[in-house]
Design the sequence.
């Protein structure tokens, strides 16, 4: 079945302070964000009518814009309220939330000092990638050709559209070979992350995850580290060399979209989703479930 294109969904989009009909939330082709990637965005999930870690995501949106040299003209509080109101208006309880901010059309060149800063929020229904049973089989990753750039080469702490160019390329290359996603190394050749999620490994009952020093320190990553510590697990944030992949027993990805997704394969290396992945998957589900729903 062909899915409905995203510009043809129903409902409302919050755009520059107003709720506009989904079909009317348009930008001109001469938009700086489209040509020069002067755009930042967020990906959030609502569970049971509440957006998980909304404040953290909105702060990161603001921070990402500042890193790209522009200021979003709506306070964090205004954006938080707009997200909540839009979720109610769309009538969804479990959904994906996509705020985006970009430079407009006033100047068309590398310099865009006078361009209006636009901001929009869209919310659509987007179920979990896989059901838990399927998820526990683990997904297969290829090794990506592109590497996460040196922070001296790109503003790697920002969730900026431009940084996703190599992610789409890597994901497409992996999908063409039948893989679900790709593992990217960083500019030094160390293990970094997947194309839209952070990565964790298990060895001798302890967690190992790369230091987030040249890619997004995901909000899910931080949540999972906290959940693991609550379980008394040791979490080693450190440089991980690709040669070490053969020494890990379990592997999983973390991200707002991916949640906690076990991995069964990275290129030639095999992993068996086990107790720790399962435990953290369940703990994450419990953590994102609003307390009053969990109590019912
Ligand atoms: C490249 C990349 N890394 C990591 C993450 C995980 O971030 P978070 O857990 O904040 O969603 C994402 C998802 O936003 C991502 O796109």
Sequence:
């Amino acid at each position: 079945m062909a899915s409905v294109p995203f510009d043809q969904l129903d409902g409302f989009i919050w755009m520059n302070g107003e709720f506009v009909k989904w079909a009317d939330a348009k930008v001109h082709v001469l938009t700086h964000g489209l040509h020069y990637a002067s755009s930042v965005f967020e990906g959030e999930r609502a569970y049971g009518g509440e957006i998980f870690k909304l404040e953290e995501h909105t702060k990161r949106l603001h921070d990402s814009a500042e890193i790209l040299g522009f200021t979003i003209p709506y306070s964090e509080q205004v954006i938080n309220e707009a997200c909540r109101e839009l979720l109610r208006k769309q009538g969804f309880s479990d959904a994906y939330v996509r705020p985006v901010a970009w430079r407009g059309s006033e100047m068309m060149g590398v310099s865009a000092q006078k361009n209006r800063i636009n901001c929009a929020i869209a919310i659509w229904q987007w179920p979990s990638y896989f059901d838990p049973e399927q998820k526990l089989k683990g997904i297969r990753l290829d090794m990506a050709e592109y590497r996460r750039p040196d922070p001296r080469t790109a503003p790697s702490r920002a969730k900026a559209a431009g940084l996703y160019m190599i992610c789409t390329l890597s994901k497409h290359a992996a999908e063409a070979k039948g893989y679900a996603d790709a593992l990217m190394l960083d500019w030094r050749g160390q293990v970094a992350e997947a194309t839209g999620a952070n990565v964790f490994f298990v060895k001798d009952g302890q967690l190992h995850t790369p230091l987030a020093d040249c890619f997004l320190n995901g909000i899910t990553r931080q949540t999972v580290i906290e959940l693991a510590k609550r379980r008394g697990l040791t979490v080693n944030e450190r440089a991980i060399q690709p040669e070490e992949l053969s020494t890990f027993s379990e592997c999983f990805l973390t991200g707002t979209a991916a949640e906690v997704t076990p991995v069964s394969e990275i290129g030639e290396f095999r992993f068996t989703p086990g107790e720790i992945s399962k435990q953290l998957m369940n703990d994450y589900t419990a953590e994102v479930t609003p307390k009053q729903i969990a109590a019912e």
